[in-house]
Design goal:
Layout (H helix, E strand, L loop, with lengths): L4 H6 L2 H9 L21 H44 L1 H5 L2 H23 L4 H9 L7 H18 L3 H5 L2 E2 L2 E2 L6 H13 L3 H8 L6 H5 L10 H14 L3 H14 L4 H16 L5 H4 L7 H6 L11 E4 L11 E8 L2 E6 L4 H12 L3 E2 L16 E6 L5 H14 L9 E6 L5 E4 L16 H6 L2 E8 L5 E2 L2 E3 L4 E3 L6 E5 L13 E3 L2 E3 L3 E8 L21
Antiparallel strand pairs: 1-2, 3-4, 4-5, 5-14, 6-7, 7-8, 8-17, 9-15, 10-14, 10-17, 11-16, 12-13, 12-15
Helix pairs in contact: 3-6, 7-9, 9-10, 10-12, 12-13, 13-14
Amino acid sequence: MALKIKEWVRLPGYLLAALILGSVVVGKPPVEKSHSLSLVTMVPLLELERKLIDILENYTNAVEEKLQAVRSQIPLMRSENEKGKQDAISYLSNPLNSFSLIRRLHVDWFQWRKFMEQPVGIPQMQNLDSWLQELPTKTDLWEACTGVARIQRTYNLKISDFIEGRINGKQYNASMSCGDIFAVGHHLAQENKTSEAIQWLQEVSPLLQEDLLIIPKHLAIEEFEVLKLLAETHFREEHYSKALTLLDNCLKMKPQDAHVLRLRRKTKDLLENQPVPTLEETKQKEVPDTYKIGCRGMFKKPTRLHCFYNFTTTPFLRLAPLKTEQVGLNPYVVLYHDMLSAQEISVLIDKAAQNMKNARTHTLYPTNKSRGRTAKAHWFNKENNKLTRRITRRIQDMTGFDLTDSEELQVINYGIGGHYYTHSDYFNFASANYTRKLTTQAAILGDRIATVLFYLTDVEQGGATIFVNVGYSVYPRAGTAIFWYNLDADGNGDPLTRHAACPVIVGSKWVMTEWIRERRQIFIRPCLPRSKEPSPKS
């Protein structure tokens, strides 16, 4: 496909080079795979990085081979030249020497010129280009930055500790580079979260010189760009004095930068007319909401709760009662222990990991995408194999419900800062406020009367399930399952069951959910109390 001159000029450098080499097809950008939404689907990225490192190593070998060819000849050439310079007439009087000099200058140096202009590493670059479509996209980086910022914001972690690997009081063998920190700050600035962006960006400059000692110059973050972006964010936050100081530092590096000059002029004008902030304005602090309070482990645990063996829900439990722990009484939420074995969990995760898809919130319009949930999921048909049939019978023993028409089992894995913001599992079909037209399937199956949530893994830090209106919190532990009712006796949704999955800080969180529909439970459902609106929390 022919490109006009203007179109060639607009192409990014690496694509332009690839087109010249004929190794990339125009119009095939990297495929969006939402890598950061699930840790298990990020595993292939490590293998991809290994392949790219191998390509780079092969490139260096090719370059070194060419350098060695040159370096091996320079001492011989210089030795011959020095021998002639010691006594030029005597040296050139020998026809062998004078002839060789003429021949070398006429023949060899043209060959050296051709050798020098020969491109190095063409096969390696073509190999690299073949993997470009597998690289994470701009959206992937956006989601990863969002996840990191979510962790820091939700748990109120100190940024300087976080970037050095001290996460929530524990030191890890990991840290963030200047490029990592700048990427998060730049992302927050683009998202107009300027106060957060400032906190991240101001951590970059002190590390730049140290960063230059360990990474090549072409990968280093330019100090000018850091200071300019930091000045812009301070300007947007109306910190004109700080912005002016930063802009002056920028002009020392690039005195003629038009953008910086215009911003400095505007900043100086606004600074002269800016009112002095009051004491109350300077002491404003974040007041965490209920969601953040719960995720930070600050809920007060309900009292008068106990543990017991459940041997009454079904006749089978008389032989094998379930270890049951009360989480809360209103709404009634219980935690069952030892519900899945390590082998069962391993099989579920292995099968799900092969075909994970982006998890979305359930609406009547499933094409809508919500950032309130960041994870990937796989649906299991309950009648698919012996394991899922066995788990279905186990859920029936836990709940006493008929699962014939209930939803399939959904296995979920969370990624970087993976979470599910506050939501309800019910649709509230019975409510007078529900105005959407019901689908045939929804009318037949009814609303979600109850939820069973299995934890398939432990999570080292974060990842709790919290009920924000009543102050319950449950932390993931492999093999356990929590159960609660979503509807009251009239079929109305219970707002007290609104819950959230807190962001994962460290660890890989796997869960499995079963949503139980109400129609088949008409003669076996318990007499649940009518739901009440949650009282406002301070």
